[in-house]
Structure formats: C-alpha cells, structure tokens
TrEMBL record:
It comes from the Eukaryota. Pfam families: RVT_1 (PF00078). This is Reverse transcriptase. Coiled coil: none annotated. InterPro entries: DNA/RNA_pol_sf, RdDP_mobile_element, Rev_trsase/Diguanyl_cyclase, RT_dom. It comes from Elysia marginata. One of its GO terms (molecular function) is RNA-directed DNA polymerase activity. Residues 460-483 have a biased composition (Polar residues).
Amino acid sequence: MNTAQLKLSGNMQKDAKAFNQAIIDAAKVSIPRGYRKNYKPYWTPALEKLHKDLGLLKDKLIQEPSDSNTIAYNRAQAIFKREKLKQCRENWQKTTDSLNMDKEDLFNNSWRTGCVPEVWKEAHIIPIHKNGKSKTDPISYRPISLISCVGKLLEKIINKRLVYHLETNGIIPPTQSGFRKNKTTEDQLTYFVQSIENAFQEQKSMLSVFFDLSKAFDTVWKDGLRLKLLQSNIQGTMYKWISNFLHNRTARVKLDGKYYSKQVIMKEGVPQGSAISPTLFLVYINDITSAITPYVKHTLHADDFAIWSTAEYATTAKVRVQATVDKVFKWSQDWGLTINLNKTVTTKFSLKIKERDVTLTMNGQPLPTEDTPTFLGITLDKRLTWKPHIQKINQKAICRSQIMKKLSGTKWGANSKILRQVYQGYMIHQTSHGICITCLEYSSNIQPHIPFQDSESESQDSPWSHQINANQRTTQTSRNGHS
C-alpha cells in the first residue's frame, strides 16, 4: 500500500500547497480514475463474493418477483454497500495515515501565528443557471463558491470554540435561531403564531413587519465585523486568526474546469461555503435587536427578521412599530446592510371587521401591505385560517406526485429504495414543514389535503404502490429481525 509522503518546511504558504498536493496524490492512488476502470484499490475477495451473490439474487428477483426475493435482494444490497463503504474508508485512511501529523502541525502553525494560507482563501465560483432566466444576464446565475476542504476542516475546529464562547456567555440572544444547535425555524414560527393567537383571544390587533435584507452575507462590512468581535470579547489568538481569515480573500469564476475571469479581491462579505461564516454573520447581525423599542417583539432566524406589536387599536400598534422600523433602518445604514423596500412588507393580523388600515413608512416611502405574507417558508393570512398555506402546499404536492408517478413502474421504474428516498426528500420535506403549527387548526382547513391523499391511494395495484409497500415490508422485517 502506497502512502502519501510530505515534509513540511515551516513556510505556511508553501506547506499548505504541498499538503493539498499530497492529498491529491493520495486520491489518485486510492480512488479509481476514469481511465483506469478496472483498478479498484479497495476491492477485496470478500467484496467480490458479495458482489456475485448480489448479482445472483438480482437475477432471481427478475425471474421470480416476490416479497421474499425482494427482501433477500435488499438485504444483500445493503450488506454489499456497507462493506464497500467500509473498505473504501479503510483504504483511504491507510493511504493518508502518514499525513495526520503533518496536518496537525500545519493547523497548529496557522493557529499560533494567526495566519491563514492564501490557498485556503481562494474561492472558485461555479455559476449555476436559474431555470427560465436569460442566459445572457449575469443575474440569471446562482454563484456556488468552492473553497479549500483542508481549510474548512480547520474552520470547523475554530468555529466550535467560537460557538462555545458565544453560547456560554449568552452573547447570541435566544430570539436568534439561525445556525444554532437545537434551534429551528419552527421555534420562531411557533412563537410568532402564538403571539397572533394571543392577540385574537384578547380581541386585539397585531401589526407586523417582515424585513428583507438584500445580499446580507455578501455585504458584511469586514471592519465592522472586527469591531463587533472585539465587543463580544473575542480577542487574542482567536481575533487575530479570524481577522486574517477575512483579509485579502480572492475569487474567480470557474467553468468546465477552466478559469474565465481574473482573480479579484473580495472587499466585503463573509466567504460563501465557509464553515465559520454563518457564526460570524450571527455576530455581525446580533445587535440589530438594539433597535427594538418598548412594546415591540421580534424574531430572528439568520437574516430573516420580523417585528410586531399587539394593541387594542391598530393605530396604537402603528406608533410602536414605526419607531422600531425607523431605528432598524438607521442601524442598517450604520452597518452597511441594505433593506429591500419592495420586499419588506407589513401585515395586520386581526379578527375585527371594521378597523381602519394603517400604513408604515421607511425612509419616507410607504411599505407594501401583504395580506398573505410568507415567513420562514410558511404562508400566513391576516385571520390565520391557514387556507392560503394549505392550498399552496396541496398544489405543490399534487404536482410532485405526478412526477413521482412518472418514476414508478414494474419494468422500467426506479427501485423501491430510490422511490422512497425521492418521496421523503421531495414530498415529505415540502409538505411537513411547519406541520406542528398547521395541524392544530380546524379540520375544515385541512380538507384540501384529503383529495391528494386519496388520489395516491385509490389504486393499490399501481407499480408505485407495490414498490413502496414492498419497501415498507422490507424495512419492517429488518427491524423485527434485529429486535
């Protein structure tokens, strides 16, 4: 077994490049390449036997379709994949085992000196075209930033220390749920919706504003972030390393393996694709809560920011919320973030039939009023009936179910495992978001879901139904076998 060899020189920049090259050389040895199709370094006699047995079971399943043959094939396939992954992992570990000490020395040197190698600061931007957009317009492309995986590994280590400092000292407020352990969007949604319910029970009105920050991550003022790090008592080696991490970062567009742009220095923003960038952004946006005035509540999920106030009269709530809107706008100007006035909307939640509408302004411009705003993936309405949200989810579910049907078939369709993965990731994820809130509503509002469910279960003899049921039986049998 060939192992990667590396000798560090003590020069941070040269050592980082040499380490990257050693990883590439190790990958060429341990990972099969396209021009060496028959070369599989991880292949063992045990894998060869499992592969042959899997082929025999597959042929038997095709010739004699049955539940027992399906279960046997699925079990053999799972065992083969598990063993193959194990061998791949062990082979890679043996090949790169000699680099572990070099990696540790490289990381320690970077941490002690507070210096991040230039090769770790370079980003390759891969433009992904947005469907239905003009290919000649740069705005029609979504930039995907790829940075050094070795550098990201050190970022994760340092980020863990940074998060520990922020959490143990209570620097990040409890109203912030973005990029935090054991916190989700549903925490904020529950808090927000409960405030609406409380207002309805007290026969009051609730006036809210949903802010939209334009390109928040890309427009972070780096010197301002450094100041906020110091204000958060992040000093010494940690501050020095993060400050150098932000300094002189570069990027260039890469397409089809070739560079199509000159290297440019990213003067503003936290780097995309970085492991520590989300935490740095939380530090930067943390003091936006200082703009909250009395009798106004707020919720924050990364850069998704909402404020509201409850009062007996909407005009009273307007005075309170307007004061906060003015302070938030001033805060955004002070720290270089842009609030999109066209996408920042206001909504009045109330059960009152006769009540005068109110208008909020920002920078002298009236904010748009939206009766059905979307917040954290949930469509709300001013009387909180959930009908617009459920109708939208039902329409998406029906469209996606049609795609699922196209993937099913006894002869040409995808196997049960693929169908189940697609169903869970493509269907369940979409329809179950926020269900802990919407499931508490009246059955009359949930009714639109029923036709969709019936349409999927009306034919128990469909190929899709057979394969999903077979997969469920396989899973249940496997669980019983391990119990």
